[in-house]
Amino acid sequence: MRVPGPLGELVHRAEGVDSAVGRDAEALSHRLAEGRFYVACLGQLKRGKSTLLNALVGTEVLPTGVTPVTSVVTVLRYGPERSARVCTEASGWTAIDPATVALYASERENPGNRNQVTGIEVFEPSPLLRSGLCLVDTPGVGSVFTENTTATHAFLPQVDAALFVLGADPPITADELRLVEDISKRVAHQLFVFTKADRTSNAERAEAVGFTRNVLRERAKGDDEISILVVSGAEVLASGRPTRDWQALVEALERLATRAGANLVASAEQRGLAHLKARLVASLEERIGLLERPLAESEARLEALRAQIAEAERALADLAPLLRGEESRLLAQIERYRDDFFANAAPAADRELDGRLGSLAKGGPVLRATALVEATAVARETLDGWRRLKASDVERLYRAANARFMEMLATVEAANRAGSTADGTLAAIGGGLRGGSGFYMTEMLAVAPDSLGARIGDALAGPFGGRAATIRRAAHAYLQRLLEVNSARIKNDLRERLTASRRELEGEVGRRLRETIRSAEVALERTRELRVAGRSAVDNELGRLRRVLAAVEATGSPAEAAGDLGRG
Fold first, then answer.
1. What's the CA gap between 310 and 302, in Å, rounded?
2. In whole numbers, what is the pLDDT of the chain averaged over residues?
3. What is the 3-state secondary structure of 420-468?
4. Residue 412 near residue 312 (C-beta atoms within 8 A)
5. 460 in the same domain as 375
6. What 3-state DSSP class applies to 84?
7. Helices 295-340/368-408 angle, 10° precision
8. Residues 67-96, buried b or exposed e (16+ Cβ, 10 A)?
9. C-alpha angle with apex 119: 113 to 120, nearest 5 degrees?
10. Distance from C-alpha of 501 to C-alpha of 266, rounded to nearest angstrom
C-alpha cells in the first residue's frame, strides 16, 4: 500500500539509505490512517502498570509478577476478537497466541530482549479501545536492566498522551520526575494515578499523594492544578467492579478519546515527521561523508575506531571494579555522614525544640498538637539543611570519581574527535549524579503522639505543669523519631542515586561504543560496494544523496521539492 503525504515521501527517500526510518514512517502512516493514538502507561518499575492496563481492558492479557516483568513495549488496540502479533528484527510481524505474550514481553522469558523483539500488539474487543485509543505498556524506568529503560525512552517520540502510574514508596522517583518533565514538553494530555491503593493506609496515601502533587506542580506542570486518581487495578480485577477513583479514570480516558482523539492523531503526525526527518538527515550526512573521503582513509579510520573501541571495552571491563570501589567508598562516607548527623545535628534540633516550647515551661496554654507541629517544623528544617549539604558533598565526590574514570577512557573520545563517523560519542557521558533526589520527608502520622487517647489523658492529668512535661517529652520523642527515620531515608536516597548513576554510566558507555562501531561498519560496507562499481557510481550516489538530503530537509514545508529523486 502506497503511503500518502509527507510520511510517504520519507518512506520513498529512505529506501537505500535507512530502511528502519522507512519502516517506522510506514507504520506511523498506517496507524494515523486508522485514527489510532497512543496513551502510554509510564512510571518506575513495579508500579503495577501491567495490572492497571489489564483491569482497564477487563482481562489479564499482559504478564505480571513480583519481579520486574515487562521488557518490551506492548500495544493494546481494538480488535473484534482477542488476538496478538509480534514483530522481530529477523522475521517482521508474525501472529501469536495471546496466551504466549509473556514469552516475548517479559524479562524472565526474553531477558535483555535477546529475541530482538521490536514490537508486540494485542487486539482486544474492549469498548474503551473502540474509538482508536491504544494503551501502551512500557518497561519501568529505573530498572536494573538497562535495556528496559532504554526501550521506554526509545518509544517516547511515539507517545500521544501519557498515563503516569505512581505509588507510595517513594511517591515519585527522580527517574519518574525526569520522565514527566520530558513528556510535558512533548504532549499536552497527561493523567496521573496513584496505584496499589489497597496496599497502603489512608494516612500513608494522603501524605504520599500530597507530596507528589506538590512536586509535580513545582517541577512539571507549573501552576496547573494536579489531579491524582487513587486506584487499584488488582481490586478491580478481583471484584469485577470499579473501586475508589476507578470510574473517574475510565471516564477521563473516554473523554480523551472523544474530545481530543482527532487532535492527538494530527499532533502525532507532526511529531513523528520531525523525529523521522532528523533520523534520516543524520543517516544521509553520514553516508555523504564516507563517500567524499578516500576509501583507504575511511577504512583506516574504521580500523582505528574498531581498535580503540575494543580497547575501551576492555578498559571498561577492567575499570568497572574500580568505579564500583569508588562507589563503595562513597557509600561508607554516606554512613559516616549519618553518624555525624546524630552526633551534632540531632542534639542541636533538641535544643531548638526546647526554645520553641519554652511557653510550656511557663504554664502557657499550648496544646499537644501545637507542640507536635513545632517538632515537625524543627525536624524538617534540620533534615533539609543536612540533606542539601550532604547531597552537595556526595555530588562533588562522585564527580571526582567519575572524572577519574572518564579520563581513563579519554583515548576513545580522542579517536572520535579525530574524525570517526560518530564524533563525540562519549562527549555527553559523565558528569555528576543522574537525576534529582527522590526523598520526601514522612511525618510518621501513624505514630504521631496526638491520638484522641493522648488528648483525653492530657485533659484528665493533674496540674498544667505535669501536663506540659508530658507533652514536652512526647514532642522530643517524636522529633527524635522523625530525625531517625528520615535521616535513614535521606541516606538511602543518596545510596540509590549513587548506585543508579554508576550503573547508568557503565551501561551508557557500553551502549554508545557498540552503536558507534555498528553504524560505522554498515555505512562503510555500502561505500565499498559503490567504490567497486567505479567512480561514476560514487558520483551518481553522491549526487542522489545530496538531492535526497535537500528534499528530506524540505519535507512537509511549503518549499518541499517536487519530482522523482530516484531510489537507491
1. 12
2. 76
3. CCCCCCCCCCCCCCCCCCCCCCCCCCCCCCCCHHHHHHHHHCCCHHHHH
4. yes
5. yes
6. strand
7. 150
8. ebbbbbbbbbbbbeebebbbbeeeeeeeeb
9. 100
10. 37
Average pLDDT over residues 398-408: 66
- Facing residues of 165 across strands? 193
| pTM beyond 0.70, yes or no | no
H helices of 341-367, in order, are: 346-356, 358-361
Looking at residue 506, its pLDDT comes to: 67
Per-residue pLDDT tens over the stretch 336-378: 888 888 888 888 888 888 888 876 554 444 567 788 888 888 9
β 190-194/117-124 pair status: unpaired
What cell numbers appear for 100 in the block? 504466549
Does 476 share its domain with 412? yes
Could you read off the pLDDT of 486-535 as tens digits, one per residue? Answer: 888 888 877 777 777 777 666 666 666 666 677 677 777 777 777 778 78
How many other C-beta atoms lie within 10 A of the C-beta of residue 4?
Answer: 10
Query: Beta strand 92-96 with 117-124: parallel, antiparallel or unpaired?
Result: unpaired
Instruction: Tell whether the torsion through CA atoms of 126, 128, 131 and 134 is positive or negative.
Output: negative
Whether residue 249 is contained in a domain is answered as no
pLDDT of residue 453: 47
Cβ contact 351:455 at 8 Å: no
Q: Do 281 and 356 sit in the same domain of this protein?
A: no
- 321 in any annotated domain: yes
Clarify whether residues 333 and 458 are in a common domain.
yes
CA distance 131 to 140: 27
User: Cis peptide leading into 294, omega within 30 of 0?
Assistant: no
Distance between CA atoms of 149 and 139, rounded to whole angstroms?
Answer: 6
Q: Examine the domain organization and report whether 341 and 237 are in the same domain.
A: no
CA distances from 419 to 304, 411, 425, 427 (A): 10, 13, 11, 14
CA distance 330 to 498: 8
What is d(CA 462, CA 420) in angstroms, rounded to the nearest whole number? 84
CA distance 101 to 547: 44
Tens-digit pLDDT profile for residues 199-223: 888 888 888 888 888 888 776 555 4
Type of residue numbered 81: E
More reliable by pLDDT, 381 or 260: 381
